[in-house]
Amino acid sequence: LMYCGNYERDEQENDTMLIVQILDNFGNQCYYLLALSLMSIFVQWKKGKIRRIFYIRHTVFKCHSKMLIKKSFWFFVFTSIIVLSTFALTLRPSERKEQPEDDGYDKQDTAILKFQKTIDDEEIKILVNRMREADENRAKDDDYKLNYQQRTTPHEEEDLAPLPLFTWVNEQLLNRSTYRAYLDLVPLFHPEVSIDEDWNAEEKKKIYAFLDEIMHTKVFNLMWEFLLEKKLVPDDKFQFKNLLFTQWFGLYTRSHGHLGSSGFEHVFIGEWRKHIVEGQHYWLRFYSLEKQGHINYKGWLLHDKNVASTIHYDWRSHHKEIGGFLIGSSPEFDFSLFTLCFNAKRGQNACKVLIDEFPIHVTSFRVEHKPFIGTSYPVLI
């Protein structure tokens, strides 16, 4: 049982047989402890749900074959406990605070942990402050007006904010080159994660045009210089652009093998999975959807004046219990900030910054075993 409790080997046929042998060795009085140990094993396995279910089922079938031989009532009872408990724990949705619906992130990203410890939080704060000052395209305070209305909670069903969040936005902002390049990308994406996507030549042209616009800005180049100094990205502009394409626009699955997701879509566009809104961490996207009547703002959870907010809303028939974004920032600022944090300080609340003196942590994760951005979003502190 002690061996089982620390079980971390690769799945093999012999592993299941070993569990069955332990049953033989210990007898009926240990079945309850064995049930708990097996539950611990299955919960700790960091595998995909389908594979975990397969090995649970495989083990249970082996156990029941033993039960039929032994004709043991108690063995039947406790293997049944194993079946019900492990399946329930395996299928239970994640309880991560910001986005409980997201999975597949590499939270044991050891490669990043080795170097990010050498990057001081103060360095990041100084850099982001310089980026903020250089953000010539961000909205000024008189370029928009917000109406937060009542505070709510993530699980509140009642709409506590009958009016839109954005009362007014100066749409002259949208004529600037980086905004236009961003808006050109929006139609390329379908928010439903189960719909496959692929980049044809015309779509790739628009993506690279967006990257070109972003890479010409002061904000981006401050970030790039920092990553170059830390030797985290290529010094060749063409190679770095290709890396950005891979990290942000590389396609991966969030739904049964369908290549219907990318880091950019998740963060800057937003996605639907079942009845949940996933991602969507850019203020302009929220404003555009709200203006079109597709979003029903239902109240705020946290906000730092006009710097950032955490809110509760519905996007058509899909729900966002906890959604957050910076307010009024340019596409190049958010893109550069999230690129910085993903490459230099990714992890839960790992990238600690100050924006207009307000503390904000950026959480970033990559897709498990892949170089793609899984998510990156601001968290109010």
Automatic annotation (TrEMBL):
<dbReference type="GO" id="GO:0016787">
    <property type="term" value="F:hydrolase activity"/>
</dbReference>
<protein>
    <submittedName>
        <fullName>Poly(U)-specific endoribonuclease-like protein</fullName>
    </submittedName>
</protein>
<feature type="domain" description="EndoU">
    <location>
        <begin position="120"/>
        <end position="381"/>
    </location>
</feature>
<keyword id="KW-0694">RNA-binding</keyword>
<comment type="subunit">
    <text>Monomer.</text>
</comment>
<keyword id="KW-0456">Lyase</keyword>
<dbReference type="GO" id="GO:0004521">
    <property type="term" value="F:RNA endonuclease activity"/>
</dbReference>
<keyword id="KW-0479">Metal-binding</keyword>
<comment type="similarity">
    <text>Belongs to the ENDOU family.</text>
</comment>
<feature type="transmembrane region" description="Helical">
    <location>
        <begin position="72"/>
        <end position="91"/>
    </location>
</feature>
<dbReference type="GO" id="GO:0003723">
    <property type="term" value="F:RNA binding"/>
</dbReference>
<dbReference type="Pfam" id="PF09412">
    <property type="entry name" value="XendoU"/>
</dbReference>
<keyword id="KW-0540">Nuclease</keyword>
<dbReference type="InterPro" id="IPR039787">
    <property type="entry name" value="ENDOU"/>
</dbReference>
<keyword id="KW-0378">Hydrolase</keyword>
<dbReference type="GO" id="GO:0016829">
    <property type="term" value="F:lyase activity"/>
</dbReference>
<dbReference type="GO" id="GO:0046872">
    <property type="term" value="F:metal ion binding"/>
</dbReference>
<keyword id="KW-0255">Endonuclease</keyword>
<keyword id="KW-0472">Membrane</keyword>
<keyword id="KW-0812">Transmembrane</keyword>
<keyword id="KW-0464">Manganese</keyword>
<keyword id="KW-1133">Transmembrane helix</keyword>
<dbReference type="InterPro" id="IPR037227">
    <property type="entry name" value="EndoU-like"/>
</dbReference>
<dbReference type="InterPro" id="IPR018998">
    <property type="entry name" value="EndoU_C"/>
</dbReference>
